[in-house]
Structure formats: C-alpha cells, structure tokens
Amino acid sequence: MSNPILVEVTRGGLVESRHRGAIVAIDGDGNTVFEMGDVEAAVFPRSACKAMQALPLIESGAADSYGFGNKELALACSSHNGEEAHVALAEHMLARAGKTVEALECGAHWSSQQPVLISQSRSFERPTALHNNCSGKHAGFVCACCHQDIDPAGYVNYDHPLQQTIRDVMEDLTGASLGQDNCGTDGCSIPSYAIPLKSLALGFARMGTGTGLAPIRAVASKRLFDACMAEPFYVAGTGRACTRLMQIDPGKIFCKTGAEGVFVAFLPHMGIAMAVKSDDGAGRAAEAIIAASLARFFEKHDRIYDALMAEADRPLRNWNGIHVGDVKVTDALRQ
Amino acid sequence: MSNPILVEVTRGGLVESRHRGAIVAIDGDGNTVFEMGDVEAAVFPRSACKAMQALPLIESGAADSYGFGNKELALACSSHNGEEAHVALAEHMLARAGKTVEALECGAHWSSQQPVLISQSRSFERPTALHNNCSGKHAGFVCACCHQDIDPAGYVNYDHPLQQTIRDVMEDLTGASLGQDNCGTDGCSIPSYAIPLKSLALGFARMGTGTGLAPIRAVASKRLFDACMAEPFYVAGTGRACTRLMQIDPGKIFCKTGAEGVFVAFLPHMGIAMAVKSDDGAGRAAEAIIAASLARFFEKHDRIYDALMAEADRPLRNWNGIHVGDVKVTDALRQ
C-alpha cells in the first residue's frame, strides 16, 4: 500500500515533484476525526515530541525551583535556530542548575537557517553545544536531573534514569510500547522511539485535553503547550514554520516539527491533536500538510483559515524573485 | 501507478523515510538497457542538462575564439559551489568576451554548501551573480552571444536567439518537442523544459556516443564530457556528489545533477547513458540511485564498483559523530 500524494511542487504549471504522506487527527478519547494514509505505521517523532520529553522538567519540580517561565519552558520544547536569544536562554537555564555548556551532550552545529548561520559565522569561530537546535531541551534535561540530585552525566543514554522516566511518560501518553526494539538514536544522541503515527497524535491530544492523565501530568502538559503558544519565537525562531503558525492567532494553535517530515499540532478550541509524516522526510511537505489540516478546523476564509492556507500553498520564487512554481497541497487535503 | 521505492533512510535498523523514483539506462541507438518506474513521465532536467545548453558555446566557435580549455568548459556545464576558483574562472570567461558580472542575468545567492557559505560570509557582505551556482553556464551563454555579435541582453528569455538555439539543440538530442506548453522557468531564470526521462537519457547517450548527431555536434559533445571528466572540481566542487563520482576513476564516468532530484550520467566504456528522477525531489535519493545504477556496469567488487556502492549506501552520523542510520538503495537497485 502506498500513502496518498498530499503535496505537489509545480513549475510552469506542471508538477515537478510529489510528496506522499499520512495524517491523522484525533481527540483525547482516541476518536479519529480524519485520517489519510497508513496512520498505524510507526514513525520516529524526532523533535516533534520534545514537549513530551520536557514533562519531567515540570513534574520533578525543577522548573518551579529554578524559576522558569514561559520562555524557558518554550525553549525546553524547541528546535531553535541558534539565534542569540536562544543561546543566551539555554545558558541561563544551565546556570540556574549551576551548570555550563560543558554539561550538554547534544553535540554542536551551525544554525540550519541561512541568515542566522551567516550572522553566527561572522561572530565566532565555531558553534558550541549551546547553538545546537536541541540545547533548550538538553538544558531542561540537565536541570531535571540536577534538581532531583541525579548525576546528569550520560543523560542521553537509554539506561540513564532520565531517559527511563521519559520512556514511561511517553508510554503513558501514547499507549505505545517503547523499548530497545523500536529505539533509534536521535541527532542529539538521545533515544528516539518509532511509534504509530496515530499513537503520537493521541499522546498530544491527551496532553492538550488532559484526558486520562494524572492531574500533575495534565497540568504540566497544559503549562508546556501554553508556554509554547505564548513564546513561539523560543520554539523555533525567525522564519520558521512552527513560529509562524503559532503566531497567526496566539493561543489558538500549538504545533511542533520534527526531522524527516514529522509535524504535530493541537487545537485547544477543538480538543483535537494531529500528527503528520511525509514518507520521504521532506519538511516542506510536512509543513504544507499540517497547515492545510489545521485549516479544516477554522471557518473557511476567516483570517486564521486564510493564513493557514497561505502556509499550505506557497509560491516558489527563483534567485531573481520570479514566481516559478508552487508548493501546494493536493485536493485530498482541501475542504 | 506509483514508482518503486528505490532508496530507504534507516534509523536504529528501522526505515524512517522512503524515496520513490524512476531510472532508465539507454544506449545511443535508443535501446533501453534497464528501466524502473515510469520513464515516459516528463521531468524538468533543471541543471542536469547544462552540458546540452553549453553546446552553442563550442559550436558557435566562441570557446575556441576565447581560448577556453577544459576548466572553462567544465564550468560552463557546472552547478558550482561558488568557491573562489569557480568565481574567478566565471569572471575570467566574461572578461574574455569583454564583459563583467553586470552581464549575468542569473541572480545572486550564497553557496548551498555550508563550509563555503561560512567562508563567503566572512569574506564579503553579500554574494554577486558570479557566486550563483549557474554563473559558469551563464558566462558561457554571454560568450556565445558576444562571439556571434548577438546582443546578450535578455539572453535568459524564451524568445532570445540563444534560447531558441538551445531549444533546437535539445530537441535534436532528445527527440522531445520543446515549447511554451512544457516550459517552466529555472532557478537562474532561463527556460527549463519538461521532457520524458527516457528522452533525457537518450540525449545524453547521443552526446556521449555521437550516434545520429551532425559531426560538429558529436565533436562538441565529446569535448564537453571530456572537459567535465578532466576537471570535476569545476563541475560542482568540494564535497559534492558530481565531483566525487567523476573523481573515482577519471574518464570512466560523466555525471551531472539537477535540482529536484534529477541526475544524469554517461559511461564511455559502455556507450550507455542514464537519467534519474526522485519523485519527491530529494537529492540524497537521486545521488544514491545514480551511484547504484552506475555500479551495475562495473565488475562486482572492483575498486570502482565499491566506490560507487559506497555512494549508494551512506552512513548517517549525528552531531556527535554516532552512526545513527543509513541512506541506502533498495534491493531493486542491487545486482
């Protein structure tokens, strides 16, 4: 079985490239609202599940102990651009736990955003782990350990107490079994577990609605979603889809991207979460699919709907600024 | 009908992403050696057909008149990194025709290669059209015009005499009809024509073998392929697939990538050309497919075969250098 073509890339009115994928929207009780493609197939959520991984930071009491507000919590859930404000805040989070960049085990890389990379390369010789797009999540990990008097050394490893806790949290939220059998290593070296796309969406629906969760987890989940929606710049950064989507109408949309074409979202006004995977891992496809899928839940042609569809159907311009084609969702995704 | 999955991206032993595509290998007489997927479907060759577009530079006498050797001809066929040597040579080509960067109509952009971009951003404020990956092709266009006393102004436009000539050349080589109906605009603003993948491969088989071509065109084609194989750095640059593949055993492989997952190649010892399109436009897929397809024409486990298969199956390492997965061709592409 092959997943449907959900996004086309055109040039001169002809289709140049095609993206297949799967999407599922689900409520906190596990009722599917709509689905396309094989939504039972296991996917690596990658960075899309950072809000799940940030729960121990709150549930352990570390976030309150260290005085973290919306910005810090958003950064703990982020795949950020490595802009100055992101880097400074990650460093601040570590400092609250008495730690420095040395405690981070995520590795270092330049920003994936060209304007930021140019600025970075003019400012310093090489990036540190603070510039890693995952440094906020890792700073949160270190803080969660330190607050609980757990040695953070090796916190990226499968057997470290923190990763065991995260595994328990994610199993509770998604209902999926996580273990060595479905475990891979993420770009930042922590375990990433392949789980059914539908289970991933269900986990976010439960986080957003609190359905079936212990009260402390329901409260912590809401706090993380609210923090991300309040500070979308700290979830991604300048020019990024997550930030743009959450800025359309603050508080109306929570969303988070992950590598290899994953995207998750939650709509507070509907109590519905969704998860996307583009088969080929293309971010441009996942962004278009999630935007069009979110648009279904707003009145056609109201401001939010139009803003979302402008993300779902995007013009491609060449080096001279000429409109040469479009990235656009297929009819399957249009209302 | 959907094209077969030709490339898989794994993580922790599980498949994370999948790339579908089509590949055809053909000889100069039009006999198909092997094919997978829909090879009659039209694709935009994009930069993969730059060697075709460079023929007027030689056939007009401009290349000889301006004293262009292998490096200049390779650059005329290139999608280069914008490294210093590329930029200097493009400027030199223009100077031979009495022109400067002002004559280029391709637009400007930073290098797509991160190490080059970092170096560029530390050396100058913003890139010029000379840094555009297509500047060698465009310099060749300007030279072809100037040598023939054709005003190069507007040389990127569909109706300019140069583009009319290129259209005739490409129709002659591929047997496909090119016109407004199948024309789009490329990244560098010149016309790009959607043609069947098989016709694209046939055009390169004819260029490589000379079969069915006027003598002047056969000679010019061989000269361009030989130039690219002699100077692979000038066809792409540091760290690029085209350059690596042509460096494996100089003179044994001609190849050229194009945007949105296109790749073409010619094997002089077999007289066979091939063309690849990954459905989703992923370069990583096109690179793996072309490498594995080229490997079929060498003895299993000789040095060239092994080097090609090392391009077809590539480890993925994370920011800490850990081997987290692989990009690899599926069994369909293995001998």
Gist of the model:
Two copies of one chain form a homodimer. The first copy, chain A, is built from 13 helices and twelve strands.
Q: What is the element layout, followed by pairings?
A:
The structure is a homodimer of 335-residue chains.
Chain A: E1 5-11, E2 14-27, E3 32-36, E4 42-43, H1 50-53, H2 55-59, H3 62-65, H4 70-76, H5 84-96, H6 114-123, H7 135-147, H8 161-174, E5 183-185, E6 191-193, E7 195-196, H9 197-209, H10 215-230, H11 241-247, E8 254-258, E9 262-267, E10 272-278, H12 283-295, H13 303-312, E11 314-317, E12 323-329
Antiparallel strand pairs in A: 1-2, 1-12, 2-3, 2-10, 4-7, 5-6, 8-9, 9-10, 11-12
List the defining traits of the structure above.
two-stranded antiparallel sheet, 8-stranded antiparallel sheet, globular, homodimer, 12 strands, alpha+beta
Query: Biggest interface: chains and residue counts?
Result: A-B, 51 and 51 residues
Structural class of chain A: alpha+beta
Q: Ends of chain A: how far apart?
A: 24 Å
How many DSSP E strands of chain A?
Answer: 12
Please report which band the strand proportion of chain A falls in: under 5%, 5-15%, 15-25%, 25-35%, 35-45% or over 45%: 15-25%
Shape of chain A: globular
Oligomer: homodimer
- Individual helix count of chain A: 13
Low-confidence blocks of residues of chain A = none
Q: What's the Cα radius of gyration of chain A?
A: 19 Å
The helical percent of chain A reads 25-40%
